[in-house]
């Protein structure tokens, strides 16, 4: 595949994370797990860590169904100051306990640059949420955190801007970055966000970074999560970030979009044949991604 002159030339603001040739793919290592190395990696768990029982039960259930990484927020960015804000340090300790019980790696969100050191002591992967993609002092601090970073697309960010945020982390010293498409704000209200499925093949062509999809925050409703997960697998995503809760109707955050254990297990079984289909991206010439035409 030849370099894309549009993205790698004009948009040279992200040269550290751009894909210049087929050999230049970053594979992120987390213990014995590799992300972006050809295996489809599923990260699953509750939106927020709520209790020891909740996180341990969820960790066991998602591990048994084939997930390799446990997600769970200890520090939650909430739109309302009256919503549950997370358990903080106690939540991090519970995540570490769940890792010990199951062997799952841990991904959890960091909102504030002052928390980077503390969260890096517990997490295997540092999650940057959609609201923080443009928090440049946080991104710079993550350059020195010694852990891979899961960088979510800002809800109103263009892909070029996502790549520039990745560049900031890389320029600050950390090339271990995983990009995450989680849906963007559009005029559509039938779904919580609009899953930009084209972001996956574009990012996989233009950047050297692994790309995963979060169908939960894109959909906003659990019924759509498995079918969006299929789409992610078919377009060549390297994995998923999915919300799972033992009793979604009682969840303190994002219960409506969370799968229960049976639904998650069924989704994982169903996904296998779709993972086998993707990716077929290598046939697409990157020059084709220079958008044109009028509406
Ligand atoms: C989350 O993963 O729970 C989360 C808050 O996601 P986002 O930043 O994509 O809204
Ligand atoms: Mn959530």
Mass-distribution shape = globular
Oligomer description: single chain
Using the CA coordinates, give the radius of gyration: 18 Å
Distinct small molecules bound, one entry per kind: phosphoenolpyruvate, manganese (II) ion
Overall pLDDT score: 92
Low-pLDDT runs of 5+ residues are none
First and last CA, distance: 30 Å
Please describe the biggest sheet, giving its number of strands, its sense, and whether it closes into a barrel.
Answer: 8 strands, parallel, barrel
Helix content: 25-40%
Count of individual helical segments: 10
Strand tally is 10
What's the arrangement of strands in the largest beta sheet?
A: 3-4-5-6-7-8-9-10
Describe this structure in words.
This protein is an alpha/beta fold and 295 residues long. Helices cover 34% and strands 14% of the residues. It has 10 helices and 10 strands. The strands form 2 sheets. Strands 3-4-5-6-7-8-9-10 form an 8-stranded parallel beta barrel, surrounded by 6 helices. Strands 1-2 form a two-stranded antiparallel ribbon. Helix 2 (52-64) packs parallel to helix 3 (89-102) and helix 9 packs parallel to helix 10. Phosphoenolpyruvate is lined by residues 47, 73, 77, 129-130, 152, 182, 214, 217.
In terms of topology, how is this protein built?
Blueprint: H1 5-10, E1 28-30, E2 33-35, E3 41-45, H2 52-64, E4 69-71, H3 89-102, E5 105-109, H4 116-122, E6 125-128, H5 136-142, E7 149-152, H6 159-171, E8 177-181, H7 199-206, E9 211-213, H8 215-219, H9 225-234, E10 239-243, H10 261-277
Parallel strand pairs: 3-4, 3-10, 4-5, 5-6, 6-7, 7-8, 8-9, 9-10
Antiparallel strand pairs: 1-2
Helix pairs in contact: 2-3, 5-6, 9-10
Residues 47, 217, 243, 253-254 line the site of manganese (II) ion.
């Amino acid at each position: 595949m030849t370099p894309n002159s549009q993205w790698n030339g004009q948009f040279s603001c992200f040269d550290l994370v751009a894909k210049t040739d087929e050999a230049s793919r970053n594979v992120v290592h987390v213990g014995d797990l590799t992300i972006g190395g050809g295996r489809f990696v599923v990260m699953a768990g509750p939106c927020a860590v709520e209790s020891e029982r909740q996180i341990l039960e969820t960790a066991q259930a998602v591990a048994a169904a084939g997930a390799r990484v446990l997600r769970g927020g200890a520090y939650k960015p909430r739109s309302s100051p009256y919503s549950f804000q997370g358990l903080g340090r106690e939540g991090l300790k519970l995540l570490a306990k769940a890792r010990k019980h199951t062997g799952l790696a841990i991904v959890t969100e960091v909102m504030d640059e002052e928390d980077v050191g503390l969260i890096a002591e517990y997490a295997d992967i540092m999650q940057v949420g959609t609201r923080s993609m443009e928090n440049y002092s946080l991104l710079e601090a993550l350059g020195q955190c010694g852990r891979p970073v899961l960088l979510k697309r800002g809800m109103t960010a263009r892909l070029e801007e996502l790549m520039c945020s990745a560049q900031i982390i890389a320029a600050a010293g950390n090339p271990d970055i995983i990009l995450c498409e989680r849906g963007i704000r559009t005029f559509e209200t039938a779904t919580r966000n609009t899953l930009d499925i084209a972001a996956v093949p574009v990012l996989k062509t233009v950047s050297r970074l692994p790309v995963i999809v979060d169908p939960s925050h894109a959909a906003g409703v659990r019924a759509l999560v498995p079918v969006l997960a299929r789409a992610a697998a078919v377009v060549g995503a390297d994995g998923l970030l999915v919300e799972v809760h033992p009793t979604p109707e009682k969840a303190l955050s994002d219960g409506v979009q969370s799968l229960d254990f049976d639904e998650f297990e069924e989704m994982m079984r169903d996904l296998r044949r779709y993972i086998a289909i993707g990716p077929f991206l290598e046939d697409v010439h990157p020059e084709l991604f220079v958008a044109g035409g009028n509406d």
